[in-house]
Write a structure and sequence with these properties.
Helix Hairpins
């Protein structure tokens, strides 16, 4: 399977494989039918064209079969997404603020960063809002994307299955430096995350962990 950072990403990959598989079968079937008709009804065999009247059975099949295929593809995608969106109980909450052209993250204890850190064994609810124009929070490794709108709060649920560092991008064109609106998501073991999130600004804290109250954070 494809590289992924969550079980939800695996379900997205499966849904995509099903859609691609159905599309390939349809492509091959239509191509074979076209080639057959080219030879079966060419001008040499049928110099005089004949009117072909409707066939009720074929018309019913042509409607029912595509409808079933579309519903199967829809169900695989919807079922996984609905479970993820409904699973918000006991989630660790992190506030996400988008701005042109970067990200700020605020943790329950007040810590602020421009890089996102998450614990491995907890599900995290990201509460998303924008300080200016529309943005979109996109984590390719998790197969998740959510619009970030000014004046509104949207949310996203992340449930990592392995530690590591993953790209975070803006997937909504938001101005001149949209293509540079990247940051990192670091998934840590629980003990490492607890140690990191509870560090203070005296001692071993990295400068990136001490942002100003309201101004966008720029990591040095």
């Amino acid at each position: 399977m494809f590289n992924s950072a969550s079980n939800y990403a695996d379900s997205v990959d499966i849904a995509m494989l099903i859609i691609v598989g159905i599309s390939v079968v349809l492509l091959l079937g239509i191509t074979v039918a076209m080639i057959y008709f080219v030879f079966r009804y060419n001008r040499k065999r049928h110099p005089v064209a004949e009117q072909i009247h409707g066939n009720i059975l074929m018309e019913v099949i042509w409607i029912v079969v595509p409808t079933i295929l579309v519903m199967v593809m829809f169900w695989y995608g919807y079922e996984g997404y609905q479970k993820l969106r409904a699973d918000v109980d006991d989630a660790y909450e992190v506030k996400v603020f988008a701005y042109m052209w970067g990200w700020n993250f605020e943790y329950p204890n007040g810590k602020k960063t421009d890089t996102l850190y998450l614990p491995l064994s907890k599900k995290t609810k990201l509460i998303l809002t924008s300080r200016d124009v529309n943005h979109s929070f996109y984590v390719p490794a998790f197969r998740l994307k959510e619009d970030v709108i000014g004046g509104r709060e949207h949310y996203m649920i992340l449930k990592p299955k392995t530690t590591g560092s993953y790209d975070v991008a803006c997937a909504e064109y938001c101005g001149l430096n949209h293509s540079m609106m990247y940051t990192k998501l670091h998934v840590l073991e629980d003990f490492a995350f607890d140690k990191w999130v509870n560090m203070t600004d005296d001692g071993n804290t990295s400068p990136e962990l001490v942002p100003t109250a309201e101004e966008p954070v720029n990591e040095k």
